[in-house]
Recover the amino acids of this structure.
């Protein structure tokens, strides 16, 4: 594994990354070569060099012109290839451990933002600043740590607790999911057994030969169906219970929105809510009409699928469609905003009003 | 009142006839007045422009096109243009609607009722002075055969009408559809009449139960229903089409009103048997029906117009000829210009396209088809 990894890095990175700056040993010769850094000075060297130089106690950094005293304990593998980023992350960790206030400790959002900006400025000074700025920032950090040691400790604990609670909740959720899955499996198993039992009984009864064979099989099927549907209903009601019961337990998390069960979607209505059942007439199965006699008795006419009922329903519908619509009234009512009619309210009012007039102003096709 | 709307009415409310083509009488009158004023202004403007152009062309006689000059001269009236009023326009529209019905009868087209409604709808937002009714009439009649699914070959159609070429019919087709606001559905009362008559027939025979509070059936009901059927159908075929009832009432109301004119007692009983005598809705419907019947009575149910009006109509037609918008007379030419552009600077484009077409055709004949690169 490590071999593979090192090979792949050897392929992609530039050759400088493969040579230890201290002992000049090469990855080509030593495939297990591993580089370590120390957050004191972020100078890279191979693990062999670290062992060689620092096993016997603290020593100065072997890189020319550095001379910082390093300990073996401080060395670790860099997480980022870019050591600048590695360093910034370390600094952020260090500052974050001291300035660990939370948002709810502040009275307003703007003061919280001011605090964040202050911390960010400090971090910037530490990362990118000149010697002087760095020293100053270090000094503030130290002073703050000394002044607020107790609060920092409290916040640290609170943060850990919050993390704990979160972890706990996750564990509980996982457990619940597992239990549910087990229950479902168990139920399915029981179902299967039940059906099997029923079937065996039926076979036995058939073998014994009491009663009509057809009746027995039919009865058995009915029983099985009834049982399975009963079980399904039970399961659904159970599920509903648990869904209701679990709601008030997670109180520790703040700011979570209350969950609202999604509305059950209605079946698709192609007529957009229009009722097609006639209210002013009842359609008869047949009407007398001398015009239709010919069509009724003519196979040539009926063979194509012509349906008298279609004709009846259409004529009757048209006879009463719009009988109760009074155009003057409706146009007036449409202009009222509270009119509950949703159908076709736009057109006629507009047609009667300004739009047509504007259209006339626009030039015609030619 | 709207909250307890019945399904039949709800379905009618969703139709374009209700949404776009229903007006109160006052609204319709206002709309027609505006249309008329706009058109009159445009006619005056166009005539002024045409006169200026003629004055220019007569100044240099040398290269004046004799044909266009003579046509322009004949089309341009002298003096101030005397435009049609709204009432005069309406009279002429009614006359041309009658013409449409006669032409439909002549060609044996069952779609003339739709054509008449198209003409009436078209001339609510357009004026006779802008677009000549005789061309619109033909287009509407032909167009109605399409929308009512009654196929009629264009060349045959043009042949059957005197002095008509297929281009004449097609030239104003888009204009018409635009005037109709692209709504082609016309709800007629004819089928409704069949429905009502069938149900009343069934009631007379006791096959359909009805509200007993309406009292006993009128005497000799089935015979009366038959007679009323015939009378009402004649009304619907003429009066209903030529008046404005389609704009002001629903097809069901128009049908009931025409039956009311045929046999008042019968329809009063029929409405009562549906709603009960005390129902406020029934009272209101009866009021509306009598309004509608009054409007239907303004035009007698005969195919030909009254002879007394003939003189007035011909006078109006002459007046119309004098106040036509000179820029919109030749619709065929306008259509051609619109379709092919002005022809001068576009010639290059046309030539280029032709070359490209030929090139593509040549390449397609090659063994491996045209090259893969395009452009």
């Amino acid at each position: 594994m490590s071999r593979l990894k090192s090979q792949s890095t050897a392929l992609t990175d530039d050759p400088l990354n493969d040579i230890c700056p201290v002992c000049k040993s090469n990855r080509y010769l030593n495939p297990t070569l591993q580089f370590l850094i120390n957050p004191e000075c972020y100078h890279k060297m191979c693990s062999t060099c670290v062992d060689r130089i620092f096993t016997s106690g603290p020593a100065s950094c072997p890189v020319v012109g550095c001379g910082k005293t390093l300990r073996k304990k401080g060395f670790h593998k860099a997480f980022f290839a870019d050591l600048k980023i590695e360093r910034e992350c370390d600094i952020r960790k260090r500052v974050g451990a001291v300035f660990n206030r939370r948002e709810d400790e502040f009275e307003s959002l703007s003061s919280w933002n001011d605090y964040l900006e202050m911390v960010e400025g400090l971090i910037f000074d530490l990362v990118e600043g000149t010697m002087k700025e760095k020293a100053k920032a270090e000094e503030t950090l130290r002073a703050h740590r000394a002044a607020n040691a107790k609060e920092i400790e409290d916040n640290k604990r609170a943060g850990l607790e919050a993390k704990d609670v979160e972890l706990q909740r996750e564990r509980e959720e996982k457990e619940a999911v597992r239990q549910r899955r087990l229950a479902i499996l168990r139920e399915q198993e029981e179902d299967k057994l039940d059906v099997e039992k029923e079937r065996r009984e039926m076979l036995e009864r058939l073998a014994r030969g009491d009663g009509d064979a057809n009746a027995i099989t039919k009865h058995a099927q009915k029983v099985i169906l009834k049982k399975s549907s009963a079980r399904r209903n039970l399961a659904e009601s159970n599920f509903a219970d648990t869904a209701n019961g679990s709601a008030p337990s997670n109180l520790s998390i703040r700011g979570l929105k209350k969950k609202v069960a999604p509305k059950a979607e209605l079946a698709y209505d192609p007529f957009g809510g229009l009722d097609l059942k006639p209210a002013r007439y009842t359609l008869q199965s047949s009407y007398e009409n001398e015009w239709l006699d010919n069509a009724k008795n003519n196979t040539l006419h009926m063979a194509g699928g012509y349906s008298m009922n279609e004709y009846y329903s259409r004529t009757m519908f048209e006879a009463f469609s719009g009988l109760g619509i009074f155009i003057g009234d409706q146009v007036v009512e449409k202009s009222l905003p509270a009119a509950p009619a949703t159908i076709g309210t736009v057109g006629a009012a507009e047609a009667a009003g300004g739009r047509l007039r504007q259209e006339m102003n626009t030039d015609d096709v030619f | 009142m709207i909250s307890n709307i019945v399904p039949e009415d709800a379905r009618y409310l969703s139709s374009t006839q209700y949404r776009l083509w229903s007006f109160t009488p006052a609204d319709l009158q206002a709309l027609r007045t505006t249309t008329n004023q706009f058109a009159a202004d445009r006619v005056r403007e166009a005539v002024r422009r045409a006169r200026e152009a003629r004055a220019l062309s007569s100044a240099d006689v040398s290269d004046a096109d004799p044909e266009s000059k003579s046509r322009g001269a004949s089309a341009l009236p002298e003096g101030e243009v005397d435009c049609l009023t709204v009432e005069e326009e309406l009279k002429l529209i009614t006359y041309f609607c009658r013409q449409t019905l006669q032409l439909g009868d002549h060609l044996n087209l069952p779609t003339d009722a739709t054509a008449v409604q198209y003409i009436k709808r078209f001339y609510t937002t357009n004026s006779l002075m802008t677009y000549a009714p005789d061309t619109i009439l033909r287009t509407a009649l032909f167009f109605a055969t399409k929308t009512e699914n009654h196929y009629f070959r264009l060349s045959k159609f043009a042949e059957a009408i005197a002095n008509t070429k297929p281009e004449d019919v097609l030239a104003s087709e888009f204009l018409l559809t635009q005037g109709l606001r692209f709504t082609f559905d016309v709800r007629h009362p004819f089928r409704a009449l069949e429905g009502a008559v069938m149900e009343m027939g069934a009631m007379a025979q006791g096959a359909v139960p009805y509200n007993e509070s309406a009292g006993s059936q009128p005497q000799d009901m089935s015979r009366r229903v038959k007679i009323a059927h015939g009378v009402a159908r004649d009304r619907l075929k003429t009066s209903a089409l030529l008046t404005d009832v389609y704009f002001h009432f629903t097809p069901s109301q128009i049908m009931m009103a025409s039956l009311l004119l045929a046999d008042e007692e019968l329809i009063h009983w029929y409405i009562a048997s549906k709603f009960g005598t005390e129902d406020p809705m029934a009272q209101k419907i009866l009021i509306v029906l009598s309004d509608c019947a009054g409007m239907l009575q303004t035009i007698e149910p005969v195919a030909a117009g009254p002879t007394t009006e003939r003189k007035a109509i011909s006078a109006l037609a002459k007046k119309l000829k004098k106040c036509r918008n000179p820029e919109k007379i030749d619709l065929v030419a306008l259509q051609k210009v619109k379709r092919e552009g002005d022809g001068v600077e576009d010639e290059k484009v046309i030539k280029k396209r032709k070359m490209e077409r030929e090139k593509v055709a040549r390449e397609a004949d090659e063994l491996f088809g045209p090259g893969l690169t395009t452009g």
